[in-house]
Structure formats: C-alpha cells, structure tokens
C-alpha cells in the first residue's frame, strides 16, 4: 500500500509549493492521525475467560484523541480560514465551493468532538463496549473530512492557476 493510500484514506495530496507549505504540514498531521487510528483498529484481540476481547490501552485512546483534537482545531482555526481568504482574495468574490464544503467539515467536527468528549477521559467498561462501533463512525467522518479538505485545496489551486494565467 502506498503512502498516498493508507488503508483507504487519501493521506497525501500532491505536495504544494513553498508558498503553501502549511498545507504540507496539514498533510503530515493527517498521515499521523490515520496511523494512530489504524493502530487502534488493528489491535490484537485478547483471550480472557474464553472470550476474545478488543482492549486498547488508555494511553492509545488518549493519544489518538489528542491528535484528533489537534487536527480538527488546527483546521478550523488556522487552515480553513486561510484557504477561504486566499480563495476569496484571488477571485475577488465568495466562492461556492467553500459554501458547499464547510458544512460537511463542520458536521464531521461535531461527531469527532463528541467522540473525544466520550473517550478522552474516564474510560469505563460501558464506554469500551461501544469503542469499536464509534471508531467505525470516526473513520467515516475522517474520510468525508479529508475529501472535503482536498476539495478546498484543489479549489485554491484552480483559482491560483486561473488568476496567474489571466
């Protein structure tokens, strides 16, 4: 499996030039988040009292939650506003791509924040019983989020190409 496709997630866009190196930083953070996610999903099952159990450690879950919140926060407070501002400045108008993509990203944020709130602290048996199912939904949210982020970045590239060729 290539670095670009890590277990079905597009983790790398085409690297961008040095003017947009902050996008490359986001891509690196995305890769790290997916690796931690895959580690949680692919933990070995433990046999206990004649039953197989899926038991990640508290440290593994909290490390994933920390990276997840860092990634989500960095996008909302740093990257997306910067991308949208660059797109608007380059085109001289508000762009419909941002209006279509941002609600999808915000929807994933809501679920990912709830996941973090549930699992970042005070783990117990009841929470652990729903972890595998909740991680499956996290994967769907990350996939949608990555695709939406990719659309924003591709839109930025297209606008810059159009403006620079005008």
TrEMBL record:
The protein's matches in InterPro entries, at most eight in alphabetical order, are given as:
Rsd/AlgQ_sf, Sigma70_reg_Rsd_AlgQ
Where does the source fall among the domains of life? Bacteria
Which processes are annotated in GO (biological process)?
regulation of DNA-templated transcription
**Which keywords does the record carry?**
Transcription, Transcription regulation
Into which family does the record put it? Belongs to the Rsd/AlgQ family.
Q: What is this protein called?
A: Regulator of sigma D
Organism of this sequence: Anaerobiospirillum thomasii
Q: What is the lineage of its organism?
A: Bacteria, Pseudomonadati, Pseudomonadota, Gammaproteobacteria, Aeromonadales
Write the gene name: rsd
């Amino acid at each position: 499996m290539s670095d670009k496709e890590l277990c079905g997630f597009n983790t790398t866009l085409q690297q961008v030039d040095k003017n947009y190196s902050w996008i490359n930083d986001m891509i690196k953070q995305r890769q790290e988040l997916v690796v931690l996610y895959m580690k949680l999903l692919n933990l070995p099952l433990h046999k206990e009292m004649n039953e197989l159990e899926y038991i990640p450690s508290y440290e593994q879950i909290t490390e994933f939650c920390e990276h997840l919140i860092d990634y989500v926060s960095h996008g909302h407070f740093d990257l997306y506003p910067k991308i949208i501002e660059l797109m608007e400045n380059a085109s001289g108008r508000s762009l419909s791509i941002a209006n279509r993509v941002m609600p999808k990203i915000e929807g994933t944020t809501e679920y990912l924040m709830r996941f973090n709130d549930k699992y970042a602290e005070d783990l117990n048996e009841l929470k652990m019983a729903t972890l595998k199912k909740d991680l499956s939904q996290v994967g769907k949210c990350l996939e949608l989020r990555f695709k939406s982020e990719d659309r924003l970045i591709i839109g930025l590239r297209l606008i810059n190409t159009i403006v620079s060729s005008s």
